[in-house]
Amino acid sequence: MTIKRWAEDLAQIVNPSNIKINESLKTYTMTKLGGNADIFVLPESEKEAAAVVKYAYQQEVPLLMLGNGSNMVVRDGGVRGIVISFTKLDEIRIDGEKIYAQSGALIKEVSRLAAAHSLTGFEFACGIPGSVGGAMAMNAGAYGGEIKDIIVDCTVLTKEGERIVLSKEELELGYRKSIIAKKEYFVLSSNFQLKMGDQQEIDEKVADLTFKRESKQPLEYPSAGSVFKRPPGYFAGKLIQDSGLQGKGVGGAEVSTKHAGFIINKGNATATDYIETIEMVKRTVKENFDVELELEVKIVGEDLTN
Fold this sequence. Notes:
This protein is α+β, with helices and mostly antiparallel strands. It has helices at 3-10, 46-59, 107-116, 132-137, 179-183, 199-216, 236-242, 271-289, and strands at 19-24, 36-41, 63-65, 72-74, 79-84, 92-95, 98-102, 119-120, 141-142, 145-146, 151-157, 163-167, 186-193, 195-196, 223-226, 253-255, 262-265, 298-300. A five-stranded antiparallel beta sheet has the order 6-7-13-11-12.
């Protein structure tokens, strides 16, 4: 089955204006790297999302979920099949001390709205750049807080397009992992439980965390955020720093001099540069400290073919 036929079939499911053929993924990733998607589709409702997932499963078309692109590196050859994005599913609702948020809503926007309603518990996410869906899949966390502290339940689609609701326990949330990532579910929405707090204390905490993030992270450059998970008993950034790797890299990619846990795109990097820099860091840290760094970011797609 051809790409043209996939697009024609999908046009019966979603608005044709939300289907893009041979679409560059650089625009949709925080690294500003990567090749093209055969088909890029943006469903406008949960019903459309389920229909696209079901179609891909039934037709055996490869399907990749792309959230806010903050935790993903797309190879230069791009992605075959369908890339689906839920960025149009971005509704956020507050009901007392509970928050409902769809997958495509930015997690920092949910945090901001919670703070504006004097709700405490979500401050840790005020600077996390990803979507709710991505945050759920990796149990995102920062500054001592994480998704599992506040989640009630999560509605997902299975690979077959079936809609199911997972409780906090069923989500199996651990350090940067979940049943969502393990089973390759597609997040539709989540419910969070917060508490009423003191507005001044909430505002002060958000301001403090924002200052810490802006002063310590290289936000002026495109990057995939923190590249590596925290190794047991160590800090990835410290190991990389102590290996003398800051300022070093391949091509246009470089280990940040501001925060060694970040690899930045200096402006002319390729995905190959970025991935080779990751491999160089892993190799050097292994040689120096006998520690295997594990990726927090996801690398997808194909290399360029000659």
